[in-house]
Design a protein that fits this description.
- It comes from Streptomyces malaysiensis subsp. samsunensis.
- Residues 54-358 form the Acyltransferase domain.
- The chain crosses the membrane at residues 85-106, 118-137, 149-167, 231-251, 277-296, 303-321, 341-362.
- The protein has helices at 54-73, 81-104, 113-141, 159-169, 171-176, 180-192, 203-208, 210-218, 221-227, 230-250, 274-295, 311-327, 330-333, 340-357, 360-370, 382-393.
- The chain has 394 residues and is mainly alpha-helical.
- α6 packs across α11 (274-295).
- The longest helix is centred in the N-terminal third of the chain and has 29 residues, at 113-141.
């Protein structure tokens, strides 16, 4: 049920020998970025910046907690059907929720120099830093000093950063086409039936998760208002209950690998015709559960709202502990963790650790890696210079 380590974070399922020829291969806003309304092209001098939206900060924090809990449940799924069912439910919607929010806050992205700079410093640079850091960590923690560096094959959690970089760069294209969501689903379906895409840039996940980013691009504030209606909140309770019952039934019958979106259907040992079926089915289930999740996210400022600005920190930093627990065999050495009390303990620890990693002190300590200024690396834009002179003169 669970995924084992491969050279760059997971083991792709080998193709069955009898697989038929396949068709030609088509070609977390990040978890810690600002949760404000998309920035306007320019702001008059002296105008106050727009306030952060508590709803989106709350949603990002709660989603990142579920990400950490899901990673902590993974070693327990082979011995606990309940853990496997919860794992499948969480994996159905936690990353889709992050990606949808990322798309929503990418709606105004264009090739303006200041936005490209932010994309580089806030996404590309953290990807490079953590790809190297994770590789060094694996060499040490897993006692594998010959483990290769690879900036083209994302390891473990860094796939999201490189995917976000590509998705955001493609934003102008999705804003141009007439039917962006159906087109993105077609791309995801073609990826699902194309086993020869390979591991470079983790293209399978990049393409199979693409529809959620495009859906976010197409959403408007009123759509979130509709989701947060009381009727939706009430309906979400039986929906989640039915999802758990179905997941409990499916746990011994269905591989969790379907929810990772990292393999083609052939690599999962399924016939090609299941590609369109599973792509549409999983997309529909994810959209429903994401909507139910958003319906219960608080709209007002909560004690954890401030942590929503640090979810990228928690996302990337908790990976060292999540992988270290496997490298060091904690779940094998302490069998009581596989008992109900142990599962509850693991869940509480995961939620507590990710909460600490999202706090402002941690953000200040690691801002050099997550949000570097890097003014030395860029030439000053003439328009920016003109605005600076205007502001100074005023």
């Amino acid at each position: 049920m669970t995924n084992s380590l491969r050279p760059h974070g997971y083991q792709r399922t080998p193709l069955p020998e009898e697989t038929a020829p396949t068709p030609p291969t088509p070609r977390a806003e990040e978890p810690g970025q600002q949760a404000t309304t998309p920035p306007a092209p320019t702001s008059p001098a002296g105008q106050k910046p727009k306030q952060r939206d508590a709803f989106f900060d709350n949603a990002k924090y709660l989603a990142i907690v579920l990400v950490a809990m899901g990673h902590s449940w993974e070693p327990l799924t082979d011995s606990s059907r309940t853990a496997e069912a919860l794992y499948m439910i969480v994996y159905t919607f936690h990353m889709p929720a992050f990606i949808l929010i990322s798309g929503y806050f990418s709606r105004s992205f264009d090739m303006r120099p200041d936005r490209l700079k932010r994309l580089i410093t806030g996404v590309a640079v953290p990807y490079l830093i953590f790809e190297v850091a994770y590789t060094l960590f694996k060499r040490w923690a897993d006692d594998d000093p010959t483990y290769d560096f690879s900036l083209l094959d994302p390891w473990y959690l860094t796939w999201f950063l490189i995917a976000l970089f590509v998705w955001r760069m493609s934003t102008p294209l999705w804003k141009l086409v007439r039917w962006p969501i159906p087109l993105s689903l077609a791309v995801a379906t073609l990826a699902a039936v194309s086993p020869d895409i390979g591991d470079d840039l983790d293209m399978q996940r990049l393409l199979q998760f693409l529809p959620f980013f495009v859906l976010g691009l197409c959403m408007k504030p009123e759509h979130f208002q509709m989701i947060r209606r009381r009727s939706v909140r009430i309906a979400s309770v039986p929906i989640f209950a039915c999802a758990f019952v179905f997941a409990y039934w499916a746990a011994p019958r269905m591989s969790s690998a379907w929810f990772y979106h990292r393999d083609s259907v052939q690599e999962l040992g399924a016939p090609p015709w299941t590609g369109p079926v599973m792509t549409l089915a999983l997309f529909g289930c994810s959209v429903v559960l994401v909507s139910c999740f958003f319906a219960w996210v608080p709209r007002r400022h909560m004690w954890f709202t401030v942590l929503g600005a640090g979810t990228l920190y928690g996302y990337l930093l908790h990976g060292f502990l999540a992988k270290g627990s496997r490298f060091w065999g904690w779940f094998d050495d302490y069998q009581w963790l596989h008992k109900p009390l142990g599962e509850i303990t693991v869940t509480i620890i995961a939620g507590s650790v990710i909460t600490v990693l999202c706090t402002p002190p941690v953000q200040r300590a690691f801002r050099f890696a997550m949000e570097p200024k890097m003014a030395w690396a860029f030439r000053k834009d003439p328009a920016e210079q003109a605005r600076s002179r205007t502001t100074t003169a005023a």
